[in-house]
Structure formats: structure tokens, C-alpha cells
Amino acid sequence: MNGSDGLLGALRELRGHLDLGLFPLAAGDVEGDRRALRELTGQLDDYLIPRLSAIDAPLLAVVGGSTGAGKSTLVNSLVGADVSEPGVLRPTTLAPTLAVSPADQAWFTAQHVLPGLPRVTGQGRGEPGTLRVVTVPALPPGLALLDAPDIDSVVTANRELAAQLLAAADLWLFTTTAARYADEVPWGFLRVARERSTAMAVILSRVPPEALGVVKRDLARLLEVNGLGGTRLFEVPELVLPEENARLPRPAVAPVADWLTGIAADSQARADVVRQTLSGALESLATRVPALADAVDRQHAVAGELRSMTDAAYAGGLATFDEGMLDGSLLRGEVLARWQDFIGTGDLMRTLENRVGRVRDRLVALFTGRPAPENELRVALESGVGALIRDSADGAAERTLESWSSHPSGRALLEETGAVATVRLGRASAGLPAKAEAAVRGWQGYVLGLVSEEGADRRTTARLTSYGLNGAGLLLMLAVFASTGGLTGIEVGIAGGTSVLSQKLLEAFFGDQAVRTLTVKARTDLRARVAALLGTEATRFTSLLDAVQPPEGAAAALRAAALAVRDHQREIPAADRRTALPVGERQERLPGAPVTLTLPAGGTDAAPDPLDRPPGAVPRPADREGDER
């Protein structure tokens, strides 16, 4: 029976959305979000898509559990061959070992399942990051056993690999010991199995003879309490072995072996296991994918906060420029000196109120009699405006850097950018001076155009011919850089007087209303040019977000993909689904095994313990295999 093309297509569509870097920013529990993304991506690649592509493929049973649980010894004992290397030193399983039947070798050596792990065959332990495939003639076709690393390994990569392998399994053989069955780490995995309805059996190993049955009943009680009642539970006694890597006697593992043999021999039994795990994994997407989508929304929200910080800082930079444009500060220093040269007297300001007419006459003489030093004034004005732009940009960059550094997400992003680049971000860009110079020159050309356009009638043209177009343009530029409201020459000091004189001279050319209109136009144009420059400067920060932020619509696409998967789940035949049954009943309906060997009593399902003892009340013998270190 093949999986539905519609369901496969929906899963592949979902997988395509998970290729994106969805969680680059430190937003919320971002490490948990990234871990959930890796787990979901791995399960799609390692299990869901391959299994639906070949629903009748051999069953993969993963033997997992805690340190010292004897997983490798159990696998060797079950298959009757030394395929995994047990030992006292931890970690023992450096690379997972997959024991397969000769009939199934071609399937598992190809990249059908766990495609991210390169295959290694032959003798040896295998290198970390590989999957060692060993052919075992005694294994029946249709079933493969995978010895996984410890779920609580001191090596992070081993723990992550163990979780990945368990997520890729059709059937969990979860192994724990009499000494450690109540530890929290195993129960975290068992609860995941419950949430995803994974087909599972629990093997309680290394049970001292005096605790046989007692520990098993307590473990059965804990399974019941944790919503896993009815889980198939096997008990393996602790035995004295002749050597460290010896296999357990056949009778000790026969109940487990016979149960697995029965599943392998019955195609319907295998199908029941597969469909239980498959249905549970598919149903888990209904909560896991929307949770990822919510996390993507958090990423966008944090990115929006950082963008708002940047916008506010550069809006402040533009406000700084506005203040400098209106407070008269530009009309001091070098600009004032060049203005005085331009007018032709150093005593101009003392006689501003009663000598405007005489100054106009002096200007006529300057324009018509000898070249005026207007170039020096234009250059000084250009330099002053450029300096104000750079100062505004420096302040905006510094404020943005401070804001980002105070935000966890911004701080993390800056750290990834690097110390040198971060220092550079705290100042205006190296290319800003040249851009500012070009912007100011463009503005000066715009102002001259305004003056020329306004002086188009004959009488005004005659005045401009007398005074000079460039001279009148400079007067308008000077008028831009101070507020004229309420200014009266001597009362506002030298800078204000300069502005007032410029305005009065312009009024003599164009009239009061025209000068006000020209000044507003010139000021608005300059402000727009500076705003564009600061906007470009701000992109040095926002481009960092653009490079990592999830694309718009990513969260909506994930939610839509999850809905599509849910809609297509009906394509799995209803008679094969276990979704309406409680978890415990689903476990009980896993197939039992025919007895093919003469075995001692034991290995049956345990009844719940009538005593409500707290976890750990049963004495737990020491684990002779040793702890991982």
C-alpha cells in the first residue's frame, strides 16, 4: 500500500518552508524554537516522507535509553551476533549500528531513511556522524534493529543523534534499568512518545533477582500515571556474564526476541505498528507546526522592534538637522566671515537697521564693478551644511547602536556581526561626506533654479541682472538657515542679523510673500535630501535584519501547510488509524508474538501495582555497567 500523493505533496510542501532560516534572532525561547525546528525537519526527512513513500518497507526498531542500560548488549543478544560493542567506558556507541536482514540490506544501505547519515558497512565501530549497517543472517526479513547513542550522553551530539534516531523509528524499544527507571531524562522521551502515539515497548534490564517483579510493577504504575498504561513491558534480569562484552543467555531475552519475530513475520502486524506511529507523528504536526509559526511571528515582532529603534534614532538625526538649520548656528564662524567679505564691510551688523539702502548700493557696486567673493561664501555654506549632516548622522548611528545593544536580539545580532563592524556602525558611513557634498550641491542648483524661475518677469529680471543670479541665490540659501519669525537684527545677534539682512535684500528683489514661499521651498527640498541620506545610513542597520529575518508570509505559509497535511490525513484508510483510541489501548493492540522457543516464565505485560508508592520507593540496586563519564 502506497502513501497518498496528496499527503506526500503536503508534507513536502511543509518541508520546503522549513528550509528557511526561521529563527535567527534572540526572540523568546529561541533555542527551544530552533531545537523544535531541527526535530521536525529531521522527522520529516528521516521518517514521515520516506515512510509514506514506501508504507510497506521494512520496520525500523530503534533501541534507545539511558547510559548503562545495556542497549548494545541487548541488541547483540537479540540478533545472536556481536554487531555493537558494549563496554564500561562511556560513551560506548560512537556511531549508531543498524542490524538488518540480508533481504533488507539494499533498502537500508540506500538513503531511504536517515538520509543525512552516510552508510558504513563492514567491521569496526564506525565513525561519528555515520550509520554503520551490519547484515545479520539470523534476523528475519521485515525488521531492522538500530542501536542508538545514550539519550543522556555527556556528548551533546550523541544526545541529539539519539533523539533524531528515535524520531525516525517505527517502533521504540526503550531500555532502562532497575537503578534508573525513575530518572527524569527517560521520562521526557517517554512523554514525547505518548504525545506522538509512537508504537513502543519498554525493556527493564539489569533487574536483581530479589527485585524481579517488584520493580516491574512500580515501572508499570509510573507508565500508567504518565498516560502510557498498557505499554508492552519486558523484564531482563541482571546476570553475571563470563566477560565484559558477552551476550545475555537466550532465555533472558527470548520474550523480547519472540515478540519482535512475531511482528516481523506478520505483514499486518508490521502495518499496525507503522500506521500507529505514522498517524501519531502526523497528528503531532497539528500542534508542532503552528507553534513554529507563532515563533516566526515573534521573530517578526522583534525585528519590528529593532527597526522601530532604528527609525526613531534616525528621525532624531533629522530633528537634529532641523534644529541646526533653524537655530542660526550655520551662520556663524566661517560662513559669517565669508558673508562679511561678500557684503564688503565688517561693520555691517552695527548699522543694519538704518543702512539697508546703502548696503544695497554697495552690493550693486560689488556686482557690477568687481568680482564678488561669492565662491568663498558658497563653499563655506556648503561645508557648514555638510558638517551638520555628518553630525546628525553620527548621532543617529550612535543612538541606534546603543538601542540595539540594550536589546537582547539586537545585542546578539551585533555580536554575530563582529566587533570591528559594530564599531563602524556607531559612526556615519565612510561614504557619507561625499554623498552629503553631492546633495548640498544639488540643493544649491535647485535654489538657483528657484531664483531664476521667480525672477522671470522683466522688472525682476532687471534687478537680478544688476545684483547677479548667483548672489541672489546665496541670499536665499542664507535665509533658509534661520527662523525669521520675531527676528530683529541686533536683538538676535550676528547670526540672526545675517539672516534678516539676507531676507530684506531678497524682499527688495521679489517682495515679502515671494521670499517666504521661496524660503519654504528651499528649506523643504534640503530637508528631503538630508532625510534621504539618513535613510540610506539607516539601512546599514536594517540590512542586517533583512539578511536574516524570515520572509514575510512565512508564518502564514506554515499554518497553511499544517492545515493541508491535516486535510490529507483522511487519505490514510480509516480502518488502519488509531486516532480514536486512548494511548494505552493503542499499545495493547500492538500484535503479540507467537511463542517459538521453550522459555522460562516471564516477559508478559505487567499489571498495575496496587500499592500507590511514590517513585523511587523501591530500593534500586547499583548499575554494575557503570555511569557515563
TrEMBL record:
<feature type="compositionally biased region" description="Basic and acidic residues">
    <location>
        <begin position="573"/>
        <end position="589"/>
    </location>
</feature>
<feature type="region of interest" description="Disordered">
    <location>
        <begin position="573"/>
        <end position="629"/>
    </location>
</feature>
<keyword id="KW-0067">ATP-binding</keyword>
<keyword id="KW-0547">Nucleotide-binding</keyword>
<dbReference type="GO" id="GO:0005524">
    <property type="term" value="F:ATP binding"/>
</dbReference>
<protein>
    <submittedName>
        <fullName>Energy-coupling factor transporter ATP-binding protein EcfA2</fullName>
    </submittedName>
</protein>
<dbReference type="InterPro" id="IPR027417">
    <property type="entry name" value="P-loop_NTPase"/>
</dbReference>
